[in-house]
Write a structure and sequence with these properties.
CATH topology of the largest domain: Arc Repressor Mutant, subunit A
Order of helices and strands: HHHEEHH
CATH architecture of the largest domain: Orthogonal Bundle
Helix content: 55-70%
Shape: elongated
Radius of gyration: 19 Å
Oligomer: single chain
Number of helices: 5
Largest sheet: 2 strands, antiparallel
Length: 127
């Protein structure tokens, strides 16, 4: 997790978002334990209640489950659910803005696809 905090968003929310990113990126998989509240609080100099609040949001979203006396663990299927939700959010909120920008700039689908291919090819050469 990145120790830099954005002042525009509550820290507990940023913590929640970082755990979500770790799940989406495959850093945390189904059944993996989250770092303990105490460890995260100590490492990032946060109030343990702030960490707990971020983790509780994940529990409320059923992405993480509490196991009494053992800690918190990523639930089975969390990544699949997150991908589904994030794709839907992108299509509903971000994609219309992207389409509007494409229209304003007068770009056509062929040009955009060519740029995607160039980016993919450059990425393949760096691997």
């Amino acid at each position: 997790m990145d120790p830099k905090w954005n002042e525009d968003l509550p820290i507990y929310r940023q913590l929640r978002d970082r755990v979500v990113a770790m799940i989406l990126e495959g850093v945390l998989g189904d059944g993996d334990a989250l770092p303990s509240v105490r460890n995260v609080a100590a490492e990032y100099r946060l109030n343990p209640l702030t960490v707990l609040k971020g983790y509780q949001e994940l529990v409320d979203e059923e992405l993480v489950e509490k196991k009494r006396g053992r800690g918190m663990f990523v639930t089975d299927g969390a990544r699949i659910q997150l991908l589904k939700d994030e794709r839907q959010r992108f299509l509903e909120k971000e994609w219309p803005e992207v389409v509007a920008t494409i229209g304003r700039l007068g770009l056509d689908p062929t040009t955009l696809l060519d740029e995607v291919k160039k980016t993919d090819d450059a990425g393949d050469k760096n691997d």
